[in-house]
Amino acid sequence: MTAYQPTPPTARGPVAVPPAPRPAGQAWSPRPSAVAPAVQRPPSQSQSTWDKDAVIELHEVHKAFGSLKVLDGVTVRIPRGEITVLMGPSGTGKSVTLRHIVGLLPPDRGDVFVDGQDVPRLNEHQLLALRRGIGMLFQDGALFSSMNLYDNVAFPLRQQTRKSEGDIRSIVMEHLHEVGLAGAERRMPNELSGGMRKRAGFARALVMEPKILLFDEPDSGLDPVRTTLLCDLIREISDKYHATSIVVSHDVGAVRRFADNIGILYKGRMRHFGTKREIELSDDEFVHQFFNASSEGPLGMD
Question: What residues does each domain of the chain span?
Fold first, then answer.
């Protein structure tokens, strides 16, 4: 199996000027360099997390869908080898941020760097190579309904490698065992519970040995016990593979259990990004209200 090879961290030079908006209708034209430039730390991110080795960087990222502005100038550095959770009210750009990281969406303005690679600048071949080093778990596991559990998990290996069926079986069974699904490999997706489908999606995300794991609301629809078990599994797997994990979640209790860092998005901007302890001690009224699920504060029903 070909291991994911991260690009070495680059030296940081002078502060870069944020990119100017491109005229309406003009094709995306990224800066010539594929090396993440230095940018000034925004007040929203703590110094302690900003100074760490970053595997993912967003620089003044803007994204709108028609008149709906979803991301409004997000700048953040996500530390390597840690679990970062993105939180915030619905519609504030959490899932959209994940799709920028994996190259499913290009920014209208700004830059997205993954291991020093300018994601919107990559051609199709380079983008596919980048994605082989990223495992993504969608809300419902995104299993193919016509395939049994084994074939779902084996799918990336059959599509992207030339491994023998014997090697594929060994890898698939190892990861099914990791997520507690050994013995269920012949079941069809409609025979699996919601938690089992999520764990199956987790196993499929792991078979290419990614160093970056993206989780889009993995705890959605799960009862408290299974949410706890899934969160423990994310921590266990992230530690085992020394992976950088980014999790979108609304479950404050679960987040307190396994997060290293927390970023809170609000109205398209990163309101605060810091360690779990820094978020807990934040005096920002919105951060305090959201992270403590309080009815008192600037966030209302609108």
Answer: 47-133+210-291
Query: Do 91 and 268 contact (CB within 8 A), yes or no?
Result: no
- Alpha-carbon gap, residue 39 to 36, rounded angstroms: 9
279 within 8 A of 287, measured Cβ to Cβ: yes
Amino acid identity of residue 97, one-letter, is T
Q: Give the architecture-level CATH label for domain 47-133+210-291.
A: 3-Layer(aba) Sandwich (3.40)
Strand bridging mode 212-216 / 134-137: parallel
| Helix then strand then coil, % of the chain, to nearest 5 | 35, 20, 45
Model confidence pLDDT, tens digit, residues 181-213: 999 999 999 998 888 888 898 899 899 889 999
Q: Give the containing element (helix H, strand E) for 87.
A: strand 83-87
The 3-state DSSP class for residue 269 equals: strand
